[in-house]
Design brief:
232 residues, mainly alpha, two-stranded antiparallel sheet, 8 helices, 2 strands, PduO-typ, ATP-binding, CblAdoTrfase-like, nucleotide-binding
Length: 232
């Protein structure tokens, strides 16, 4: 897990902001000093690098691609998904739900998803593949969670609108973002640039978020709003 986390961090930095460490490296090579007499290279690097100002960014494999490339579109959607889940988790934490830990684990897995996306197979070396591989195990875990919550829910007999209280509605929103992330990843998988298990994970994750939204509404005693066809 630690190795995956390191890969995820590197992928996020290189894939979305360029090689962040380059700032410190440039200063170290130039020998520039700081106003207080210390070496600037001893300081934490700046959050901005200006390496993407021309509209290009780096993959984990070192490729420079346009920021409009579908790899960065998929990375951005995955980042949005993690943020949406984080918001839902905060609402749920206020209620003291223990299954918030599942959402935290999902966010960690999405870092691994991003690492795989940021490592296009067409330019990946063996070392890259070892660090950013994505197995089917997380997919199977989501299926177990889905089955567990589904068994406790009343049968679904109508189309449910995103509703059921703040926590539930936030989970429904996360589900919608997850669907978009999946749509961004599928072309990469079909092109042989990303692991098929990544698309499978996002597919199951949207189902998990839907079921958890319903379960949360039930736990809070909130009403799920049902689609009603408008009259003439």
């Amino acid at each position: 897990m630690l190795r995956r986390a390191a890969a995820a961090a590197a992928a996020a930095v290189r894939g979305l902001r360029g090689p962040l460490g380059a700032v410190g490296q440039r200063q170290q090579r130039s020998g520039e000093g700081s106003p207080d007499g210390g070496s600037r290279s001893d300081r934490a690097p700046k959050i901005y690098t200006r390496t993407g100002d021309a509209g290009f960014s780096s993959t984990f494999t070192g490729e420079r691609r346009p920021k409009a490339d579908r790899i960065f579109e998929a990375l951005g959607a995955t980042d949005e998904l993690s943020s949406a889940i984080g918001l839902a988790g905060e609402f749920m934490s206020e209620k003291g739900y223990t299954f918030v830990e599942q959402l935290h684990k999902v966010q960690c897995m999405l870092q691994d998803v991003g690492s795989n996306i940021a490592t296009p197979l067409s330019s990946a070396r063996e070392a890259h593949l070892k660090r950013t591989s994505f197995s089917e195990k997380p997919v199977l875990e989501l299926e177990q969670w889905i089955d567990s919550y589904s068994e406790q829910l009343p049968p679904l007999r109508a189309f449910i609108l995103p509703s059921g209280g703040k926590s539930s509605a936030a989970l429904h929103f996360s589900r919608a973002v997850c669907r978009r992330a999946e749509r961004c990843v599928v072309p990469l998988v079909q092109a042989g640039e990303a692991d098929p298990n990544v698309a499978k994970y996002l597919n199951r994750l949207s189902d998990y978020l839907f079921v958890l939204a319903r379960y949360t509404a039930m736990k809070e005693g909130k009403e799920e709003k049902i689609y009603v066809k408008p009259g003439p």
